[in-house]
Amino acid sequence: MTKIVGNRQLRKRIHVNIAHVRKSRCNEDFLRRVKENDRKKQDAKLLGTTAVVKRVPEGPKEMKIVKAAPEDVEVLTPLPFIENYF
What we know:
Elements: E1 2-5, E2 8-11, H1 28-47
Antiparallel strand pairs: 1-2
């Protein structure tokens, strides 16, 4: 670990029991995706096509229409301003 002091970085020491340390799993999804994309590219090359391996965002949710009976609808309007000149 490092700590920025002024214009330099100092290495810090941490004291942890080895039984509490475990290997990070943050890279597993990336490595799985790389292998999967390589497999897709190889299959596409054999078929003579191109493979799309870019990640696509989820996008917005589908539209919903809310139906209600007219008597259930309550219109909220502000109270009228009343001028009090005493």
